[in-house]
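#lab-general

N.A. 3:47 PM
ok so I finally got the sequence cleaned up, no stray characters, all 196 residues accounted for. can someone with queue access submit it? mine expired

B.Y. 3:52 PM
send it over

N.A. 3:53 PM
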Amino acid sequence: MSDAETPGPDLRVRLVDVGVELLAREGVGALTLREIARRAGVSHGAPRRYFPTHLELLSAIARRGFTELAGRVTTALGDGTAPPRAQLTELGRVYLRFALDNPGMYELMFRHDLLASGSLRLRETSLPLFGVLVELVGRVRPAADARAVAGALWANLHGIAQLWRWGSLPLATGTDDFAPLLRTALDAHLGPEAGR
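B.Y. 4:20 PM
back already:
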């Protein structure tokens, strides 16, 4: 066994780091165990010491994305004293910006057909983000089924992100700013903002 393949937490982290980098450069299709191992400078069997299946490695990479997105959301929402509608606007902006700046990671994070979401605490990282959305929606629309409204809003934001990234929405709307679409999505799911 070479020094590069010495077992330990450093190799586990390096494999995820390499996967994150590969994902950013080449997309989800490039994330094979063999390619990640090659770029990490280890044998193709080395990743299996830490990630017995390809799904587990993909899940560890996706967890890194959820952790980064959660950090951005936490920073954007600050101390949580802003009105809930303002917090939802900021959460939506951060979500869309993350999706557009990290298309490969964003795609992987929501491809549950590719992930072992029960492994590596992936659900513990992803579901709290949805919980923040549900809680804020519930504060804006207390009489509504907050989980259903949050799910519909999330789907709307996801659609905006995908169609924006593919160039369809900028072309169809004639704008280079997603903010009006975000505002319209929030109005559609939460009702018009007071004072507008």
